[in-house]
Amino acid sequence: MPTALITGITGQDGLYLAELLLGKGYDVYGLIRGQNNPKRALVEKEVPGVKLLTGDITDLSSVMRALNVSQPDEVYNLGAISFVAYSWENAHLTTQVTGNAVLNMLEAIRLYAGTDIGKVRFYQASSSEMFGKVQDVPQRESTLLWPRSPYGVAKVYGHYMTINYRESYGMHASSGILFNHESPRRGPEFVTRKVTQAVARISLGLQDQISLGNLDAKRDWGFAGDYVDAMWRMTQAPEGDDYVVATGETHSIRELLDLSFARVGIEDWDKHVYIDPQFFRPAEVDLLIGDPAKAKEKLGWEPTVTFPELVNMMVDSDVAQQSAQAGA
Ligand code: NAP
Ligand code: GDD
Asked: EC number(s) for this protein (predicted)?
């Protein structure tokens, strides 16, 4: 069976991708950073079949070691500083981890593969954040990139470096331009999970208010489980390529609030939401909506979870989690 190496194994997508690949019979390795990563236990509990290797994508020799130990057929580079707001406060670090480390991954694979460049297939986690100040509606693979955050700029670097390794060395390297995707495993710093966790707590009488920033921003939100399937389909395709992965629908934070509060029977959410200027960004990405036509046609990929279904899934999961914690 094939072997895969996943960076970012402790993150939302790492867990879903590991589950998918283990289910397909893959031998799965995950790169985990730090000498005592607090999320190790989570990975061991949720995807016990994964073999963990320590390493950091900014450390070329640790990536080389992981390749030599795992001998992968496929490498999925999901590791990144992924929180856009944080990237302004830690711009240089974000550049190193989210941008420069992509070159480390590509170069390590090139050195590892030697004359047999086709022996490893590479997936890079690119992002709709690269579209930033959008130049087309909807956004496609050909849309001009105009990033609006240090995170977005770093992702553009990784995106073009991936294309460059494909064109320079014939590497099977794909870049998935993924629009926002969420799940009950989403980090609580991102707006969907921040809202669903708070709504659950408000419905249980554990808190009264949630502080948010710009409620008018619009995102094309899908389910993470569907999006990792698109990653896998890219590595199975005859050639590496770039693909937009999106639902083709966009919704505002206000709509997210409408649906989340409605799920717990609260129609009038105004009194629970407080606008706090600290959550506004130096430059906002106002509107994201992707056109996934190429992924549908070439990869046979389709999203299976609608926006209301996604919100309900997340609210229900948070209500269950918060009730259990409150009862404990
Ligand atoms: P996430 O939950 O924030 O996970 C990020 C992962 O990167 C974590 O496992 C983190 O490990 C790891 N990481 C951070 N710095 C690292 C380093 N120096 N070396 C090795 N690993 C490191 O993100 P996600 O939502 O799963 O997203 C996965 C990837 O897709 C990211 O590259 C993200 O930028 C990209 N993306 C996400 C979305 C989305 O909507 N979710 C959309 C487009 C693109 P620790 O636990 O040790 O911090
Ligand atoms: N996080 C957060 N917290 N966002 C808020 C808040 C808040 O309190 N209030 C309003 N927002 C708005 C942000 O200004 C942004 O317009 C939108 O909610 C979504 O923010 P996030 O959920 O943090 O996601 P993101 O779109 O910035 O980035 C995510 O998607 C990208 C793909 O487009 C991340 O997963 C990135 O890693 C990913 O590349």
From this structure: 4.2.1.47
